């Protein structure tokens, strides 16, 4: 039951992140892109940049400080490396972003969260 609730809340958070990005002019290219090495929650394009985005939803804003770590970002980076060629056009930049969400607060969009 707890796992199902977490999954539902996570999907809801991803949808909110998607709406936030679209309001900022991003085009959503893909959602929940699975690869053999990990999953990318959202892939979006704007102004010659393709962002591979990890979304984290927490029920309490205080928990967001612990929602993302180097291990999770390494997985997203590995997944990005595996599929970037499918989304990125010649001359476009890529980056890995994180969007942190909690009830009652605006999304926290961390740009270039992963820089190896």
From TrEMBL:
One of its GO terms (molecular function) is nucleic acid binding. This is UPF0102 protein D6858_12165. HAMAP family: UPF0102. InterPro entries: Restrct_endonuc-II-like, tRNA_endonuc-like_dom_sf, UPF0102_YraN-like. It comes from Tsuneonella suprasediminis. Belongs to the UPF0102 family. It holds the Pfam family UPF0102. It comes from the Bacteria.
């Amino acid at each position: 039951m707890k796992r199902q609730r977490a999954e539902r809340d996570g999907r809801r958070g991803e949808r909110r992140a998607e709406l936030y990005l679209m309001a900022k002019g991003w085009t959503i290219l893909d959602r929940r892109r699975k690869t053999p090495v990990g999953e990318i929650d959202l892939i979006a394009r704007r102004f010659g940049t393709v962002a591979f985005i990890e979304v984290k939803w927490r029920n309490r804003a205080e928990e967001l400080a612990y929602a993302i770590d180097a291990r999770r970002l390494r997985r997203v980076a590995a997944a990005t490396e595996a599929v970037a060629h499918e989304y990125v056009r010649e001359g476009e930049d890529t980056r890995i972003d994180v969007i942190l969400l909690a009830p009652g607060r605006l999304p926290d969009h961390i740009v270039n969260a992963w820089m190896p």
